[in-house]
């Protein structure tokens, strides 16, 4: 959730500010920087990176710097709780992503030793521990500190004693990049690609010592590690004019074809026929939008596969007793590849002997290293906090994976497989048609934005789409919204139908049209406003969907819902790219 960056290079202040601007897509409420020149200077504030820049004197310079974008977990949003933090003697500065679970115990011990705390955070503890543990060797102090921390954390530290950056990494993302006489560290590997010639993902349980000439990796018990570097992909410019969310929605036609092409170019399903034929259960694991794509893929899988298929919210999978053995496959879905709950779920499947399969939009992410197999969804960089194009690409990729598994288990014929592939070729035109009709959706959003509550309902394959539509609306407009299977309305939710409530009815199955019309009439009779999305005749105000393959309506029908959320939020004056209280990459549990 937080973003961290460290640099040893010329123009370290400007490069740190550039990195923080990149990292702000993750969501944040505060920002700060610590610069080592003649001493260590710290500048920080609540608010945006632009506010931070205004606090830094123009001629501030140094040999190295660390920076941070904070998303509050311990302590409220204020300047005092922003990172970086200085030790009491001013000789150590740290920034931190993650949660230190034993900080209260450590804090009491440090206070008893005379240390003064200036914030409510768990992170400040690390700065004082480094001071307490320093006995003339910064590396040894860092190693000792690493062994005192419990939880999930990535820490960057600079000090007054040498010209190195130090890092501590455990179950929180961290990467290091190198160039000529320069080194960079960040919680986001993509942040490094504009400067680094080579990049390495730091393993769990590692302390990093980095100078301009060399980078050394150590286990927490002080043994040297060998870590592989790779050439990073060059990152695209995230500073396009206008709202990133709308830009990313309009990229969907191109992205879904990239997803299909990328899937075939990378060798399709990365499992052997033997592995596929012995499967007895498949899980689709994810959080938020990634879970919703898994929910849709699971519904498609149940139409073909003769194994148990279940979509589970990753955090619930970790803490419940779901069966896992050598005949289990888990698709672990995450746009960033850094979602903490999904990584923990993947580790649980691996521990039980199951096969883990990452479906992610970020190569070289933690999830890619944790899982046995990896397929990229090829959505391209996504910067708006509310995911759009990545969802469509996840869905295309998951349906292709499910179809290949069904084919190899003799549950899907070659003719049916060919039909599905051809259907995917029609998706860009169908989605493009919807985008051309954005003013129709804008008009619907004008009605939706004043609703006291909005419900999204659908049956069968439409329910996961309804779930994603509801999530998008609540994420960025802050309108109360829920999704239900249409048949559940009579079991409680119908009591909420009244004037001022809007219900969006999804109806893409020809076999369920009459049932969905009956549902819409029942809602309207309680004076709620009804909007129907369907390629068939509907009830109430209707947005007519273009016709596509019956298994692919989820890829198409979600697009007007993404636009509906966008226009409703804009109409209410919301920050659509950076909604309140939300982060793009949820790297803590």
From TrEMBL:
Gene3D superfamilies: Glucose-6-phosphate isomerase like protein, domain 1, Glutamine Phosphoribosylpyrophosphate, subunit 1, domain 1. The keyword Repeat applies. It catalyses: D-fructose 6-phosphate + L-glutamine = D-glucosamine 6-phosphate + L-glutamate. PROSITE patterns: GATASE_TYPE_2, SIS. InterPro entries: GATase_2_dom (IPR017932), GFAT (IPR005855), GFAT_N (IPR047084), GlmS/AgaS_SIS (IPR035466), GlmS/FrlB_SIS (IPR035490), Ntn_hydrolases_N (IPR029055), SIS_dom (IPR001347), SIS_dom_sf (IPR046348). Residues 2-213 form the Glutamine amidotransferase type-2 domain. Transmembrane segments: none annotated. Keywords: Aminotransferase, Glutamine amidotransferase, Repeat, Transferase. It comes from the Bacteria. Residues 272-416, 444-579 form the SIS domain. GO terms for molecular function: carbohydrate derivative binding; glutamine-fructose-6-phosphate transaminase (isomerizing) activity. Its EC number is 2.6.1.16. One of its GO terms (biological process) is protein N-linked glycosylation. It holds the Pfam family SIS. It is an enzyme of class 2 (transferase). This is Glutamine--fructose-6-phosphate aminotransferase [isomerizing]. It comes from Candidatus Fimimonas gallinarum. The lineage of its organism: Bacteria, Pseudomonadati, Myxococcota, Myxococcia, Myxococcales. The gene is glmS.
């Amino acid at each position: 959730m937080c973003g961290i960056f460290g640099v040893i290079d010329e123009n370290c202040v400007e490069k740190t500010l550039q990195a923080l601007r990149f990292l702000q897509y993750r969501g944040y409420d505060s920002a700060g920087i610590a610069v080592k020149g003649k001493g260590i200077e710290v500048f920080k504030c609540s608010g945006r990176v632009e506010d931070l820049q205004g606090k830094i004197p123009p001629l501030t310079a140094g040999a190295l710097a660390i920076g941070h974008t904070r998303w509050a977990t311990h302590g409220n949003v204020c300047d005092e709780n922003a990172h970086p933090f200085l030790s009491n003697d001013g000789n150590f500065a740290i920034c931190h992503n993650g949660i230190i679970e034993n900080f209260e115990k450590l804090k009491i011990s440090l206070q008893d030793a005379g240390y003064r705390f200036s914030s409510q955070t768990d992170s400040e503890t690390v700065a004082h521990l480094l001071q307490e543990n320093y006995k003339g060797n910064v590396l040894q102090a860092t190693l000792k500190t690493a062994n005192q921390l419990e939880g999930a954390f990535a820490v960057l530290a600079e000090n007054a004693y040498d010209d190195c950056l130090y890092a501590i990494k455990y179950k929180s993302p961290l990467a290091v990049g190198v160039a000529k006489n320069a080194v960079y560290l960040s919680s986001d590997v993509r942040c490094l690609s504009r400067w680094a010639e080579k990049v390495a993902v730091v393993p769990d349980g590692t302390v990093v010592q980095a100078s301009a000439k060399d980078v050394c990796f150590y286990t927490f018990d002080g043994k040297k590690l060998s870590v592989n570097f790779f050439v990073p992909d060059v990152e695209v410019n995230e500073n396009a004019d206008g709202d990133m969310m709308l830009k990313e929605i309009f990229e969907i036609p191109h992205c879904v074809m990239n997803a299909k092409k990328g899937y075939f170019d990378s060798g399709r399903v990365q499992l052997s026929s033997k592995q596929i034929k012995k499967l007895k259960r498949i899980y689709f694991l994810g959080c938020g939008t990634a879970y919703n794509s898994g929910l849709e893929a699971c519904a498609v899988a149940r139409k073909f596969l003769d194994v148990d298929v279940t979509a589970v919210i990753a955090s619930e999978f970790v803490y419940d007793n779901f069966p896992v053995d050598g005949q289990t496959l888990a698709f672990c879905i995450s746009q960033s590849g850094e979602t903490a709950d999904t990584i923990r779920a993947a580790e649980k499947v691996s521990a039980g002997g199951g096969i883990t399969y990452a479906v992610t939009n970020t190569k070289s992410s933690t999830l890619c290293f944790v899982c046995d197999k990896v397929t990229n969804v090829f959505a391209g960089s996504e910067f708006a906090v509310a995911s759009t194009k990545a969802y469509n690409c996840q869905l295309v990729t998951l349906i292709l994976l499910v179809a290949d598994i069904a084919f190899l288990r003799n549950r899907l014929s070659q003719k049916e497989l060919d039909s599905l592939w051809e259907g995917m070729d029609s998706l860009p035109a169908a989605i493009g048609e919807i985008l051309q009709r954005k003013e129709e959706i804008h008009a619907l959003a004008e009605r939706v934005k004043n609703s006291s509550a909005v419900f999204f309902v659908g049956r069968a394959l439409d329910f996961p789409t309804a779930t994603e539509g509801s999530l998008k609306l609540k994420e960025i407009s802050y309108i109360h919204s829920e999704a239900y299977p249409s048949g559940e309305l009579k079991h409680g939710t119908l009591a909420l139908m009244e004037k001022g409530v809007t219900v969006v009815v999804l109806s893409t199955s020809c076999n369920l049209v009459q049932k969905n019309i009956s549902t819409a009439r029942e809602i309207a009779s309680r004076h709620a406003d009804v909007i129907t999305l369907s390629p068939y005749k509907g009830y109430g105000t209707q947005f007519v969907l273009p016709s596509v393959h019956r298994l692919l309506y989820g890829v198409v029908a979600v697009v007007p819902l993404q636009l509906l959320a966008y226009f409703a939020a804009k109409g209410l004056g919301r920050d659509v790219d950076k909604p309140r209280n939300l982060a793009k990459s949820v790297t803590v549990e």
